[in-house]
Amino acid sequence: MNTRAEERELAGEALRLLGVDRLALAIHDASFPADPDEDIGRGSPYSRGAARFFRFARDLGFRAIVLGPQGDLSADNASPYDGASFSRATVSIALAPLALDPAFGGLLRADSLVSLVEARPRAPAGRALHPHASAAVRRALDEAFGAFQERRRRGLLPPAMVAFASRLESWRARNEGWIERDALYACLAAEHGSGHFKDWPALDARLVAPLPGDESRASARLSALRSRHAEAIEAHAFRQFLSREQHAALRASLQSLGLALYGDLAIGLAPSDEWSNLAIVLPGYRMGAPPSRTNPEGQPWGYPVLDPAAWSGAARAFLAARSTAMFEAYDGVRIDHPHGLVDPWVYRADAADPLVAVQHGARLRSSPDLADHPRLAAFAITRPSQIDRGLPRHADGWVRALEGPQVDEYARLFDALVSAAEARGRASETLFAEVLSTLPAPVEAVLARHGLGRFRVTQKANLDDPRDVYRSENAEPADWIMMGTHDTPSMWELAGTWRAEGKLAAQAAYLARRLGAPELEATILRDPGMLVSAKLADALTSEARSVMIFFADLFGLAERYNVPGTISDDNWSLRVPEGWEAGYFEKRRRGEALDLRRALALGLRARARGASGDLEALATRLLLLT
Question: Is the pTM of this model over 0.90?
Answer without folding.
Answer: yes
